[in-house]
Amino acid sequence: MTTASTGHEEPARRVAAGLGRRPDGLSGVVEIRLHGVGGTSPQSLLDDLAPMQVSGDRIAGFYRTADREGRHVEAYSWGGLTSGSAWRVLWLLLLPFAMANMAARMFPPWLPGRPRRFAVFRWAAGLASFGLTLNLVLLAAAIPVDYVAYQCGGVPECARWPAWLLPPERPGVRILVGALVPLLVIAVLYLLAHTSQNRYDQVKPPAYDTGVPPRETGLREGEFPGLSDPAFWDDVEHTRTLTRLHVAGAVALVAALVAWTSHAVRPLPEPWAAIGVAVPLAVIGLCALALIGRRKAGSWALLAVAGAAMALSAVLAVGQPPGDPFGAGPHELPGLQVFMNGVYGGVLGALFLVPVTLAAAAWTRADWPGVAARAVLVPVGFAAGVALLSVWETDYRWIWTGLGLGVAVGAFAVLTSGDGRLGGRFRWGAPFVVLGLAVAALNTFMLATLLLVAEWLGTLRPCHDPHRGGCLDVPEPVTAETPIAVFPIIRNVIPYLIVVPVLLLLCFLLYQGVRWWSSGVKGGPGVARHYRERFAVPDGPLKRWWASTVDERPVPEWHRRLAESWPARVARARRLARVPRDLDLLLTALMAVGGMVLAWVQWRVWWHDDLPSNANWLTSLCAGVAMLLPFVLVGLLRLGWKDERNRRLIGVLWDVATFWPRHCHPLAPPSYAERAVPELQRRLWWLHDNGGVPLLAAHSQGSVIAAAALAQPCSRPRDDRVTLVTFGSPLRTLYAWGFPAYFDDELFRRLAHGPGVQVARWRNFWCDTDYIGGPVRDDVDEQLPDPPDCRFLYGQPPPAIGAHTGFWEDPRLHRRITELASGFPSPPGAGNGS
User: How far apart are CA 752 and CA 756, in angstroms?
Assistant: First the structure.
C-alpha cells in the first residue's frame, strides 16, 4: 500500500549546488537522526558541509549524506519551526498563553479513568485559559482607554495628539478611540492564530490516507487514547472553533467596557445603555459555556453578535452629549474600577475552579479519608497564612512573612514526597500551579507597562474611581507635568509581584547551592572509588604516559590537586542533573504565597477599605524595577532578532513549551509537533514502501517527537520494522514528570513490547550527569558512564563531563548504533557501566 507516500517524491534539491551527493537508494537500513532543542543544523547532524535535501522545505526537511558503514544516513532538521526566523522571537509575548496550553495537559494519570470528572476538568482548564485572554484584553484596553484617551486626552497640556482625534469635550469619543487599540491587538492575535494554523497544522497524519476514520481528540466512550489517537496531531477545526470563541469573548469585553464607562461618565439613554452592557456580557457567558462542546456553528454566531455589540457601543459612545461632569482634574475613568473588579473576579474564579475540580475528581470511596484530610488541611493552612499576614502587617515585614510561608511550602513538599527523585511526578496540582503562574506573568508585565505609560504621560498620583471618593488626599510635589491618576492598589501590588518571587528564587538557589556543594564533599569519594575499580592505568611502557584522576600512587603536586577536585566535580554534576526535577518546589511555593498575599490584599480592601502599608522606598524601588521589565523584554527580542545564536537559545524554551497542540488556548504560539510528527510518520511510511528499514537515532526533544510518531498504530504500516535509539531523552524525567497521563509506563511498555505500537528494537542511552535526559525502562536502558574514563595523557586536560550535550561526540554511542543497524545487537545491558 503506497497511498501514504503520495506527494513525497525525492526532489534531490541541493543545499550547496555542485557539492551534494545523490542518494544511492532507499532500500536497506536508513538511519534518521533527530536533533534536540535549539535547532541543530543538518550540516552538524550529518557532519557534512553540503547534505542534500530529499524532502520537506527550508523550514523543516530531511537531508541525506553519503552512506556510512553499510547504511543510508539522513537527518530530520525541524529547528526552523521554532528558531529559524528572526520574527519568531515575537512569540515570547505569548508565553502566558503557551503556559496555559501546557497546563491543560498536566493532569494526573488517573483522571481520564473518570470520564465525567475529566470532562469537567477539561472545561475548567479551558475556562481558565479563556479568562487569561480576557485578562490580557482588559489590561490592553485600560492603558489606551483610561490613561491615554480619557485622562491625557482631556487635558490640552498633556495631549500629544490632534484635537480632532481625541476631542477634549467628547469623553465618549475619546473612550471609543482608545478602544481601537485593544481591538487591533485582538485582530493581530486572530491573524497570527489563523496564519499559523494554515502553515503548521495542515500536514495530515498518514492515517487519513489509509481510510481509518480519525477519532475525536481526547475522551471517547470512556476511553482516553492519548498520543495513540490518530487525530491527536490534526485537530485544526477544533482549534479554529476555539479561536473564534476567544476572539468573540475578547471583542465583547471591549464592547462592554466602552458602554459601561461611557455610561459612568454621562448616563446613556435607556434601555440602550442596559442593552449595550448586557448583550456583550451575555456573549462572554455563552462563549464560556460553549467551551464544553465542540460545535462549530455557534462560534460564528457568537462572533457576529460580539461584532454587533461593539458597533452598538460605538454608536452609544459617539452619540453621547458633550461635556464631562467630573471635569478635567486627575481622576480615573469612571466605572473602570468596578469593571476591572468584575473581570478579575471572573478570571480568578475560573482559575481556582481548576483545583476544585481536581480535588472533586480525586474523591473515591477507597481514598476519601486522605482526600478529605487534604481538603481540610489545605484551606486551613491557607487561612492561617492569610491570618499571619494580617497580624504582622507593618511596612515591609509581610515580605519576610511571605518568604517564610514559601520556604515552609517547599520544606513540606520535600519531607512528604522526596527530593525530586528521578521518575517522579510534579508533586502538587500541576495544572493549577502553571495556570496561576501564567496569570501572574501576564499581570506583572502588563501592570509594568501600565505604570510605564502613565509615567511617560505625566506624574503618577494614587486615585480611586470618582464614584468611590476620587483622588486620595496625598500631598504631591508641584510639577509642570500633568498628574495621571492610577488606582492605589496597582502601585501597592507591585512589590508583591516583584520582591516575593525574587526572594523565593534566591532561597531556592541557596538550597540547591548548599546541596550541590555538599554533594561534592559527600559524593566525591564514592565517585573516585567507582572509577578506580573500573578504569585502572594500563601497565607496561604506556604507564608513564598515562595519568588518572583517581590514582592513589605518588604523583606530582599539580596532579594531586587535580585528582582531589575531579571526583567532586563529577559528583556535583550528578547533583546538578537532579535540579530540574525540583522546580516544582519553587513553582508551588510561588503559587501558594501568591494566593495567600492576594487573598490578604483583597481582604484588606473589601472588608477594611484599607490597603496594606509598604515602605515608600520599597514601593518606589519595585515600581521602578517593574517599569524596566518592558525594556528588558524588548532587549531580549532585539538580541534574538539580530543574532541567530540568540534566536536558537530562545528557541530552546519554545521547543518544550510549544510541543502540545493548541487544543486549550488557540492563541498560543503554534505547535511545531503538529507538523513534525506527521512529517516524520510520512517519511517512515515512504521508506517502508520503498524497501527501507528505518533506524531512528533521536536526541533530547527529538526522542519525544519520535515516540509520539511511533505511538500511533494507525499511522504506521502493520509490518514496519523500526529500530528506535534514544539518548539524552526527557521522556520520563520531564514529560512523564509533568504530563503523566500521556507519557506513562503503559506507553513505554507498548513501545517496547507491544501490542499495537511495538518497535523492532529500542535502546535508550543515558548518563547520570544529564540534567534533561535519563532512564526510561529497565529493559531498554543502557547507562553510559560520564565522563567515560578517568584516565588522560600527561599534558592534556582531564576527561570532560559531557552531560546532556556530549552524546553526539561519544564513540561508544556510535558503535552501539552501528551494532543495532547491522542486525546483531549486543545483549541487553551489555553497555551498562562500560
Answer: 10
Residue 786: what are its φ and ψ, rounded to 5°?
Answer: -135, 120
pLDDT at 7 over 80: no
Q: What is the CA radius of gyration of the chain?
A: 30
pLDDT tens for residues 738-749?
999 999 998 999
Judge contact between 60 and 78, C-beta under 8 A. yes
Peptide bond into 713 cis (omega under 30): no
Residue 502 to residue 444: CA distance in whole angstroms: 13
829: left (phi over 0), alpha (psi -120 to 50) or beta: left
Range with the largest mean pLDDT of 260-274, 275-289, 375-389, 662-676: 275-289
C-alpha cell at 289: 459555556
Tell me how far apart the alpha carbons of residues 119 and 115 are, in angstroms, rounded to a whole number.
Answer: 6
Look at the chain and report how many structural domains it folds into.
1
- Inter-residue contact 214 to 659 (CB < 8 Å): no
Pairing of strands 761-766, 546-548: unpaired
CB atoms within 10 A of CB 153: 27
Query: What is the maximum span of the chain, computed from C-alpha positions, in angstroms?
Result: 103
The CA-based dihedral angle spanning residues 472, 146, 628, 597, taken in that order and rounded to the nearest 10 degrees:
60
Amino acid found at 403: L
Interatomic CA distance for residues 276 and 428, integer angstroms: 43
Q: What is the pLDDT of residues 203-251, one digit of tens each?
A: 677 766 655 544 433 334 446 778 888 778 877 888 889 999 999 999 9
For the residues 185-201, what does the mean pLDDT come to?
A: 85
CA–CA dist 324, 170 (Å, integer): 8
* Alpha-carbon span 151 to 463, nearest angstrom: 12
Give burial (CB, 10 Å; 0-12/13-18/19+) of 373.
exposed
For cell 501546557, what's the residue?
Answer: 102
In a domain, 810, yes or no: yes
The secondary element (H helix, E strand) that includes residue 14 is strand 13-14
Q: How far apart are CA 239 and CA 183, in angstroms?
A: 21
Whether 235 is covered by a domain: the verdict is: no
Print the domain residue range for 793: 3-77+682-822
Mean pLDDT of the residues in the chain? 80
Encode burial over 509-539: b for 16+ CB neighbours within 10 A, e otherwise.
eebbeebbeebbeebbeebbebbbeebebee
Q: Is residue 697 part of a domain?
A: yes
Judge whether 533 lies within some domain.
no
How far apart are alpha carbons 90 and 641 in whole angstroms? 9
- Amino acid letter for position 364: T
CATH number at residue 749: 3.40.50
- For 406-430, what is each residue's pLDDT tens digit? 666 656 555 555 444 445 788 778 9
Q: Which residues contact 476 (CB under 8 A, 6 or more apart)?
A: 459, 461, 483
Angle at 352 between CA 347 and CA 358, to 5 degrees: 140
